[in-house]
């Protein structure tokens, strides 16, 4: 019975954490003018791939294609080419590459850096455990 109560408390905590995260996900996010990143896993090579893309921010705060001026869509048939690609086995390795080894620095906002850190940790976890990774 004690074990069952312990599990219930952990499940309650998971529900609470999800609720808090969902609430924060509803806030307005000011995009980083330095661009955005896509994170992928290469299962064959057991590595994390981080791709950087440039964008412009219009007067409404939307990311736009630097070449066309059109707002970028999440699902797009146009294949954009990253400005740079980072590869590594760990979140820390890639994090150091983008914050200490990249010139010019590809991040200008602290919230963007924190987001990338969380996502890289999640990608590393998925890589270790053979799980599919989906970027938030």
Could you characterize the architecture of this molecule?
- This protein has one domain.
- The model has no long low-confidence stretch (mean pLDDT 87).
- Helix content is 40%, strand content 17%.
- The strands form 2 sheets. A 3-stranded antiparallel sheet has the order 1-2-5, covered by helices on one side.
- The chain has 3 helices and 5 strands.
- It is of the alpha+beta class and 136 residues long.
User: Largest sheet, if any?
Assistant: 3 strands, antiparallel
What is the C-alpha radius of gyration, as a whole number of Å? Answer: 18 Å
Q: How many DSSP helices?
A: 3
Identify the quaternary structure here.
single chain
What is the general shape? globular
Strand share of the residues?
15-25%
The number of distinct structural domains comes to 1
* Strands, total number: 5
Mean pLDDT: 87
Which structural class should the secondary elements be placed in? alpha+beta
Strand order of the largest sheet: 1-2-5
The helix fraction, in percent, is 25-40%
Regions with little confidence, pLDDT below 50 for 5+ residues: none
SSE string: HEEEEEHH
Q: First CA to last CA: what distance?
A: 37 Å
């Amino acid at each position: 019975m004690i074990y069952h109560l312990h599990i219930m408390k952990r499940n309650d905590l998971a529900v609470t954490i999800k609720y808090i995260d969902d609430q924060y996900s509803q806030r307005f996010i000011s995009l980083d003018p330095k661009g955005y990143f896509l994170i992928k896993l290469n299962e064959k090579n057991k590595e994390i791939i981080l791709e950087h893309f440039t964008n412009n921010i219009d007067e409404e705060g939307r990311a736009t294609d630097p070449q066309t001026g059109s707002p970028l869509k999440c699902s797009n048939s146009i294949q954009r080419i990253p400005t740079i690609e980072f590869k590594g086995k760990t979140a820390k390795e890639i994090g150091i590459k983008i914050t200490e080894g990249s010139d010019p620095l590809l991040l200008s906002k602290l919230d963007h850096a924190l987001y990338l850190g969380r996502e890289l940790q999640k990608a590393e976890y998925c890589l270790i455990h053979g799980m599919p990774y989906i970027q938030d």
